[in-house]
């Protein structure tokens, strides 16, 4: 049997989203990926049914955010869409070059 602790069982990424915006979630994920987190710039435009997030990182970190064959950026988009589904919103993530 597993012993329960008093810690919150939710992950840190979920905690980053609660009571906050999608922008905060993207920032949390991308900061863990890049070498220069100070160069991250995120703009969020929210409409009635759609949220558009524009992400800009240092040139050296673009490959880390996109990943091989776009797998990393697609995984981030999947997380955002899952989080947006709970709010009944569509989320679009654009990486600015």
List keywords for this structure.
97 residues; GMP Synthetase, Chain A, domain 3; 4 helices
Overview of this structure, please?
The chain is built from four helices and three strands, in the order ααββααβ. The protein is of the alpha+beta class and 97 residues long. Helix 2 runs antiparallel to helix 4. The chain has a single domain, classed as 2-Layer Sandwich (GMP Synthetase, Chain A, domain 3), CATH 3.30.300.20. The model has no long low-confidence stretch (mean pLDDT 85). The radius of gyration is 15 Å and the shape is globular. The chain has a three-stranded mixed sheet, with helices on one face.
Mean pLDDT: 85
What's the total helix number? 4
SS elements, strand count: 3
The CATH architecture would be 2-Layer Sandwich
Strand content: 15-25%
Helices and strands, in order, run as: HHEEHHE
Structural class: alpha+beta
Ends distance: 50 Å
Radius of gyration over alpha carbons?
15 Å
Helix content: 40-55%
Topology:
Layout: H1 12-17, H2 22-33, E1 41-46, E2 50-56, H3 62-66, H4 71-86, E3 90-96
Parallel strand pairs: 2-3
Antiparallel strand pairs: 1-2
Could you give a quick summary of the protein structure above?
40% of the residues lie in helices and 21% in strands. By secondary structure, the protein is of the alpha+beta class.
């Amino acid at each position: 049997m597993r012993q329960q602790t008093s810690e919150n069982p939710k992950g840190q990424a979920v905690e980053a989203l609660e009571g906050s915006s999608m922008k905060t979630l993207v920032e949390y994920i991308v900061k863990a990926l890049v070498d220069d987190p100070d160069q991250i710039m995120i703009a969020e435009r929210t409409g009635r049914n759609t949220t558009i997030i524009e992400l800009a990182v240092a040139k050296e970190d673009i490959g880390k955010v996109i990943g091989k064959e776009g797998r990393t950026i697609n995984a981030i988009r999947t997380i955002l869409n899952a989080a947006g589904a709970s709010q009944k919103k569509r989320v679009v993530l654009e990486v600015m070059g």
